[in-house]
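Workshop exercise sheet. Pairs work together: one partner reads the sequence aloud, the other fills in the structure field after running the prediction. Swap roles for the next sheet.
Pair: D.N. / O.F.
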Amino acid sequence: MSRDRYEIIRSCLHFADNSVDGNDDRLYKIKPILDMVKDLYSKYYVSGRDLSVDESMVKFKGRLFFKQYMPKNPTKWGIKVWSLCDSKTGYLLKFDVYTGKGLDSNKGKGLGASVVENLFEGFENKGHVLYMDSFFSGVPLFQKLRSKGTGACGTVRPNRKYLPCQLPIMWKSKDEELVAVVWQDSGRVNILSSVGDTGTVKKSIQSKKGVREVDKPSLQAQYNKYMGGVDLFDQFCSTYPFNHRSKKWYQTLWHFVIEVALLDSKISYNLQNRKKIDPGCV
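Structure field:
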């Protein structure tokens, strides 16, 4: 196929009937594809125990009213995507596109809790442990996950509801199902968890006086070890991107769907074969 023919076909590529009014759904132009892959990535992959949820950015600088700007991210402008990944391999199990406020009433739970519950649907009662940052973490969410056979661990904001006004170094809920620890690293770090305990592990720190060992909460070490699943996925995406630029936002998401399929296929293949595929080949 010639380049010009490919460009013509690509310019006419649509995934929904434009004659049908889809204004009630902000993603209606790409909705058939998103519905198709919603549970597809996790259908043929048996994930490990530890999963992580975080936000990703699909690079896009065109005109779009739910485009996001995140100055601290490597990809500053784009479409925000909530991602659920295997903590060890970076395999993306599910994702959900954030379309801004207005259409979803989060039923009083807050955006973070709603995102986690939507992404984790279908993974309940399988013994998973879910890791997340302070945007998602909260006592009601962790209790709900625990009732569905799922552990949870994450950083937490000290002003979250149902936490003490002054969070002590170690805290347990009345039913002793949740535990929180505070550790002073380069800054104050608060960890909330429904798995693990308040034990400590040794950590070596380089200082002006040489290397010294300090006691570090085991929950902090556990969080650092298993939280990076989404970051690992983002690293693969940024290193070997699917370079097909477009001014049409729905085609950008279509390219993202293809990229996820390529990366997940590469991870699945490498897990089952001794001869690995180099990441640059995907």
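Discussion prompt: The radius of gyration is 21 Å. What would you look at next?
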